[in-house]
Amino acid sequence: MEDKLGTKIIDSVERVLRYLIPGVVFCILFALSCPEAFDKTVCKIPDNDLFVFLIILSVGISIYVIHSLIIRFTLEPIVYWLKLSPVNVFSNNRCLCNYSKAHAKLIVNREKSPHYPKEYYVYLWSITHYAFIMSYLLLFFAYWHEEHSWVDSNAKFIAIGGAIILLLSIFSYLYMQALEKNTTATIKSNETAPEKCEK
Q1: Domain extents for the chain?
Q2: What is the pLDDT of residues 117-147, one digit of tens each?
Q3: Any residues with CB less than 8 A from the CB of 199 and at least 6 apart, and which?
Q4: How are the residues of the chain apportioned to helix, strand and coil, as percentages rounded to the nearest 5?
Q5: Is 148 left (phi over 0), alpha (psi -120 to 50) or beta?
Q6: pLDDT (tens digit, 9 = 90+) per residue, 143-167?
Q7: How far is CA 173 from CA 68, 78, 98, 105, 130, in A?
Q8: I need a surface site. Which of 12, 125, 176, 177 has the fewest CB within 10 A?
Q9: How many Å apart are CA 45 and CA 54, to the nearest integer?
Q10: What does the DSSP 8-state code read for residue 44?
Q11: Can you say whether the dihedral through the CA atoms of 19, 22, 23, 25 is positive or negative?
């Protein structure tokens, strides 16, 4: 009972941080790239810690949702078509019309299997997602900023850094997909293999 409660608390904290960190990074880059706009908007927010927290959290949720949609409708279909996705374990067809059915089987298989290292993959995936979001924000503010701001003075370096992080994020995403595919295939083969009779 205590273990389940502790797991739920950890999951709740992880979810809050998942959305809070992008919001905090956005506010910092916004202040560095658009100081005048920052003073006219953010600095006029009422001095209420809870209100500020909710605004930052809302911004973070919005960024994370946009990131999720970008991944779902760009990289996921490509990885599935290339047969690098763990979803391919439950579908030998590249046709996207089979994707949702195979994806549902993957979800059910993960929930039922006691061997799937969920916490380990949550940690690895969080790093990849944060890297993606960081690259988006760096590239966005490298293009959109006020003159004579700190970002304006370092826009080229910020853009290069954002591009490098984006490429690393894509490679990390492909690696994670391949790793999960191999893990899922191994678990599936072990669970479906006939048990050996003891002599």
Answers
A1: 2-188
A2: 777 788 888 899 999 999 999 999 999 999 9
A3: none
A4: 85, 0, 15
A5: left
A6: 999 998 999 999 999 999 999 999 9
A7: 13, 12, 22, 21, 11
A8: 12
A9: 12
A10: G
A11: positive
Locate tokens 């072990």: which residue?
Answer: 190
56 closest CA partner among 3, 84, 90, 17:
17
> How far is it, in rounded angstroms, from Cα 58 to Cα 124?
24
- Cβ atoms of 69 and 54 closer than 8 Å: no
Specify whether the backbone of 83 is left (phi greater than 0), alpha (psi in -120 to 50) or beta: left
Instruction: Check pLDDT > 60 for residue 6.
Output: no
Whole-angstrom Cα distance, residue 55 to residue 145? 21
